[in-house]
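Aim 2 progress update. The chain analyzed this quarter is reproduced below.
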Amino acid sequence: MLKILTVATKELLLLKRDRAGLLVLFIMPAILVVVITLVQENVMQLSGQHTTQVLLLDLDKGYIGSKLQQILASSNLEVIVRNDRQYSIADIKAAVTGGDYQVGVVIPEQSSARLQRETTLLFQRGRQQENEQPATATSVQLYFDPAILVGLRSGITAQLQMVMQIISMENKLKNLDRLLRESMDDLGIAPEFSSLPETGLPALLDHPLLTLEESSTTSSLKEVAAYNPVQQNVPAWALFGMFFTAIPIAGAILQERKSGIWIRLTSLPVSPLVLFTGKVLAYMGICLCQFLLIFLIGTHLFPFIGLPAFIISGNFTAVLLTVLLSSLAACGVGVLLGTACSTYEQASTIGATTVVAAAAIGGIMVPVYAMPQLMQRLSIISPLHWGLTSFHDLLVRGYTLSAVMDDLGRLLLFFIATVLFSWKLAQIRL
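Predicted structure tokens:
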């Protein structure tokens, strides 16, 4: 044990002198987690997961405009009304086309009166004859920013179409209620014998009989943090930084091999496995410091710049165990690179390429569910995917330690396999 601690101390002293390397290990993931999270938060706003402003020009100033504002008040669309005479349709189009607003809605003049007239004619016609013209729909003009995301455009269009259907249905019910009451009066039926509601048929729309209720999919009774860019990016980019420690580990081993120190150390009663263990212990401490730095950024800096705070709502012990095993896997990659490669240039090139590729297919840069099917199948081979899935299961889904044991076991087996292979390779080269 003393030999392992001695090797670990030596590695930390060497790393202390490499200030540029320390900056890369700590500053790079810190910058990435802030920049990527800010970008993804803005993308969420543009994709409709946050409030979107809708510029409304109500030239009608009647029933349709007031009802539209009333229904949209409880949605994620913030209606900005422009009723002044100085605003025209051209102004609305210019504001939307220029990107000041994502959506513009124009209600033409006499729209409410036209809607009422067409609804009345619809009921007066009754069953349409072949030679009769169908009722003319009242059109509300909709404008979109040309740079708007397709998903947001489709969502807003569907939402506004639903609002138009509600307004149309309410207007039809009003006319149906009026016709029914007039017919009852003509037949001499007293209102007390009528089954019609006193408030009128449109009031039935205020009492939905079929609704959607979102229920929790987690079996845990404790509250877990909602999935958002912060809960995705803090563990993701912490893992990315931790796996980048493979390059300085490989560099340290290659430097010892090149200078002859490795031969002198192995000539002593010290096994290569002991040397590897000491290096792993030292860099595990670096990985823990990296995660702590990203954790502090998520909990303290993010709220200061307007982002949600990172929350560890699950079992803290399980999260810490995930960090430790992810650190072991990252160190295993470094030991393998340092033993298998011949030069530092090889190790740095192969190491950087491998880590970036594993991060890409592992869900660090883009969530796995957003990838093509082939990439989703390949993600299972990435150690970063195992660590990130464990973090999501613990922090977002509210799972316990037993639920992530498969992924943690993969990380541990990956570390053991890389170290044993490096040990055998080192013995062959000796």
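Residues 21 and 248 are 7 Å apart (CA to CA). Residues 2-44+222-429 form one domain. These observations will guide the mutagenesis experiments scheduled for the next reporting period.
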